[in-house]
């Protein structure tokens, strides 16, 4: 019996060690990445982006569904090409940046799809003091060599959020509820 328990424990530890060894850690390069959004304003769409963000990806190339991602976005870095609007977006009826200056995302599950390099990534999105699960449609754009021997990975993620679920209710009815988000990531292996 002791031998069976020992073998089972050794097998579990070997599996955990093997999985940890298979993980590659990548850091998002903000100078070659973007976080963009668009939202309806009356009959057209207004676009914007966040210029300050950071994050890491733990990637298992042998089984990408075992990967994970964590990221933060600095709310005050919002840019819609209009300083007055950007300042208004910091106020209580929108992002409430004085109390909640960070937006965070932490994945909880990566699911494969019928397309080899596409995944449904579920995670917790937190901002304005509220955390809700979201699903990102994620495409692996590739792995490759960068400058000075660095290894790179490229990703694109899209989703549509209902801003009211995070208590962002300003601008109604002129401003729509649905926000289309597109994230492009180039990350460097550590």
UniProtKB/TrEMBL annotation:
Residues 25-188 form the Lipid/polyisoprenoid-binding YceI-like domain. It comes from Thalassobacterium sedimentorum. Keywords: Signal. It holds the Pfam family YceI. Gene3D superfamilies: Lipid/polyisoprenoid-binding, YceI-like. Residues 1-20 form the signal peptide. It comes from the Bacteria. This is YceI family protein.
